Amino acid sequence: MTSELEKMVSGTGVEGPAYERFHIEAKSADHVYNVPNKFDVHAKRLRLAAMLIHETIRYRFNRDIVLSRPCIYGVFSGRLGGFKPIKQRCVGCMRCVQEYPHIMQVNYGKKYRELGDLHWTPESVFTILYESSTGKIPVKGMGYKGSFSGEGWDGIWTDMSEIVRPTRDGVFGREYISTSADIGSKPFFLDFSSSDDVTGKKIRLLQSSLPIMLQPPESSKLDIGIAVKQSASKLGIYHMSRSPLNAYEEDPWYVPIVDKANLGKLNLDRAPMIEVDLFTSNRGLIGELRQRYPSKLISVRLKIDEAAEDEACRLFNDGADVIHLCADYHGFDYSKTHSHISHGLRRVHTRLVNEGIRDRITLIASGGITRAEHVPKAIICGADLVGLDTTLLIALQSEFKGETRDRTDCRLASRKIEVAWGAQRLINLMASWHDQLIEILSAMGMRDVRRLRGDVGRSMTDEELREQAFEGIDKLS
Question: Which of 128, 149, 272, 470 is 20 to 30 Å from 299 by CA-CA measure?
Answer without folding.
Answer: 128
